[in-house]
From TrEMBL:
InterPro entries: ABC_heterocyst_DevB (IPR014315), UPF0194_transport (IPR050465)
Cellular compartment(s): Cell envelope
An example Gene Ontology CC term for this record: cell envelope
Biological source species: Aporhodopirellula rubra
Protein name per UniProt: HlyD family secretion protein
Biased composition (Low complexity): 407-420
Keywords recorded for this protein, A-Z: Coiled coil
Length: 420
């Protein structure tokens, strides 16, 4: 019975796969010469060299991203897309229109109605204030007239009561008549002079006194009445002024202009939400909607500023101590024609489970990683911008001499390729 022949190449393949898997479990290392089969630097064979492996590289999975991230453009739910004036790949500036929604027309009409109401309210308020101002001026004129009349009445009374005034003359005439009447009565009572004073004469003098006193009292009452009338006119004019001022305040309160202005401000904000404009300058990466489609909580499109590209690498926590800012890195993937180059920009401190799947099936599932941001070199930025969110393999060179060697050797190769 013959047994199948197992070639040495079939055994070497699994062995190399296992060694590569173990290499990526703790991130890439430089293999001992005994496994790599290469000679050491001094020319001795791998079997006689017991020196430990020198770790010069860290290999991790990464993802190409714009430095500012990818922006999702979302519209309020319940609306409908009317127009999309941009296409995928278009470069837009901040403020450019991206999507126009169906509610724009309705909200524009609502804004026009509110602005019309505001103008009408302002016109009505101006008319009411003008009428109130006219009433106020009339009341102020009446007040001045009433005050003048009051002052004149008081002055007339003072003049009439002063020596030589009309009231003073009437008072003095009445006093003089009373003295004369008193003498006549004394003469009438005296038997020697009784025949010289008649009863008619006494009555006549008494009547003159009563008439004079009546005139005095009447003139005095008229003067007091004039003062009171003028005082009442002053009070009435003052009340008219207060009423006119309150009518101005009432007109301003009833106009409700402040609420209309707030409503207009809100409608303008609603119009802005119905016209989705670009918040940044960048490139349209993907459009996930079409005209006529209803808006939901899902993004309508994605955009980003691809002027600076980075690679977010998920580095095993066991290798974080060897990572430093400024170290060079290479990025490769089957989706890239050539390797990309970059520099470690930032090492993040949040430790978590990796979000990207590992290409190695024997990778531990309970491993933890931290994100390391790698700045893509300017000459490779355009290529990285065409592969946003593509998963790549990142090699970070932790040995400075090795990194410098790779940098110096990569430049001539590029020149040769260019010349070829």
């Amino acid at each position: 019975m013959r047994f199948p022949i197992i070639h040495r190449s079939l055994l070497i393949g699994p062995l190399l796969a296992v060694s590569c898997g173990l290499t990526h479990v703790g991130c890439d290392v430089r293999l001992p010469n005994s496994l790599s089969g290469k000679s050491s630097a001094d020319g001795s064979s791998g079997a006689g060299n017991d020196a430990p492996a020198v770790l010069t590289q860290v290999v991790a999975q990464g993802q190409l991203e714009p430095l500012g991230g990818v922006l999702s453009v979302i519209a309020p739910p319940g609306d409908r897309v009317v127009e999309i004036p941009v296409r995928e790949g278009d470069v837009v500036s901040a403020g450019d229109l991206l999507v126009q929604l169906e509610s724009l027309k309705v909200k524009t009409i609502e804004l026009d109605v509110a602005e019309t109401k505001l103008e009408e309210g302002k016109s009505r308020l101006a008319a009411e204030k003008a009428a109130a101002q006219a009433r106020l001026k009339v009341a102020q004129t009446k007040l001045r007239q009433a005050k003048n009349q009051l002052e004149q009445s008081r002055t007339k009374l003072d003049i009439a009561e002063s020596p030589g005034g009309s009231l003073d003359l009437l008072r003095r005439a009445a006093e003089l008549g009373e003295r004369k009447l008193s003498r006549l009565r004394n003469a009438s009572d005296n038997p020697s002079t009784q025949r010289l004073v008649s009863e008619n004469k006494l009555e006549e003098e008494s009547l003159k006194i009563s008439e004079t006193r009546a005139q005095y009292e009447a003139a005095r009452i008229d003067a007091r009445n004039a003062i009171e009338t003028a005082d009442l006119a002053v009070q009435a004019a003052t009340q008219e002024i207060v009423a006119a001022e309150k009518s101005i305040l009432a007109a301003e309160a009833s106009a409700s202009l402040s609420s209309l202005e707030k409503q207009i401000e809100l409608l303008r904000l609603n119009i802005e939400t119905a016209k989705l404009v670009s918040p940044i300058s960048g490139r349209i990466l993907k459009i996930d909607t079409m005209p006529g489609q209803a808006t939901t909580t899902m993004p309508l499109m994605h955009m980003a500023d691809t002027g600076q590209m980075v690679c977010i690498a998920e580095v095993n926590v066991a290798d974080l101590g060897r990572i430093e800012v400024g170290q060079s890195a290479e990025i490769s993937s089957p989706g890239l024609a050539n390797q990309l180059h970059g520099t470690v920009r930032q090492i993040h401190h949040l430790i978590a489970s990796p979000s990207m799947p590992s290409p190695f099936p024997m990778e531990p599932v309970d491993r933890h990683t931290a994100e390391v941001t790698i700045q893509i070199s300017p000459e490779d930025n355009a290529i990285a911008a065409e592969r946003i969110r593509m998963q790549v393999e990142v090699t970070i060179f932790t040995d400075a001499s090795d990194s410098a060697k790779r940098t110096s050797t990569s430049a001539p190769a590029t020149d040769d390729a260019t010349s070829t």
